[in-house]
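User: Predict the structure for this protein chain, please.
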Amino acid sequence: MNDTTHRSSEILRDAKSSLVTQRQGGYHRRAGSIGRGSAELRQRNLMTRIKLIAGSAVAIVMAAIVAGLIIDGIGFVGVMVTAMAIMLAIALFSNFPKVKVPKRSALNTGDVRQMVARTELWLEHQRPALPPPAATLVDRIGVQLDALGLQLENVDPAHPSTREVRKLVGEHLPEMIDSYRKIPAHLRQEKRGTSSPDEQLAESLGKISEEIDSVTRQLAEGSLDDLAIRTRFLDYRYGAGPEAGSGVPLPDFAAENSKAER
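Assistant: Here is the predicted structure, written as C-alpha cells:
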C-alpha cells in the first residue's frame, strides 16, 4: 500500500511540475521515441531508407556505365545527369517510406509483444496533442512498456497475464486518449465538477501507469524467485561456510522451483 501511494504521489508531482513549467513558457516535449519498441520500429524504417538510397545509387551508376559503353562515353552532360539522378534518389528516399503509424483499430492484434511496440509508436504520435502533464506521463509509460515488453518475452502467449496486458495496453489506454481527443480543444481546460478534461486525462494516465508497473512486477516475480534460488545455491556451493566446496550433494533445483511456484 505504501509503495503504491508513493508511486501515485510521484506521478502527480511530476505532472504538476510539468504544468508549472509550461505556464512559465519553458516546457519542451521530448523529441524522438518514447520507448525501445517504437525506437526499433523507427530504426527498421531508417535501414529500409538507407538500402533504397544505396540500391538506387548503384543502379543509376550502373546505368550510366552501360550507356557510356554503348555510346562511347556519356560526356559532361551525362555525368551531371547521373549526379542529379543520384541526388533526386537521395532526396526521395530520405523522406519515404514514412514510419507507418499503427491505426487505433490495429493496436490490439497479433503477438502481444508486437502489440506493446505498436502501442508505443501510436502513443508517440498522440503525444503532441496532449496537455503537458499527460505528455510527461506518456513518456513515463513508454519506459514502462519497455520493461513490460522484456517480461513478456519469457511469458507463454496463452498465459492469463497476456489477456490482462491486452486489455490494459491495447484497449483501455488508447480508448482513454481517443475519448480525450474527441473533446473540442477549447473545452479541455474547462472545469466540469471538480476537474477539467486535461486533469482527468492526467489522473487516468497516472492510474494506467501504476497498473502497467504492477503487471510488470507480477510477471517479474518468477524471475526474482529463480534468481533468489540460484543465489542461495552459489552461497551454498561456493560460500565461506564450512560446507563450501566440500562435495556435499547439490540442491535439487526442480524441487526448489516447485516450492517457489507454490
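Residues 39-95 form one domain.
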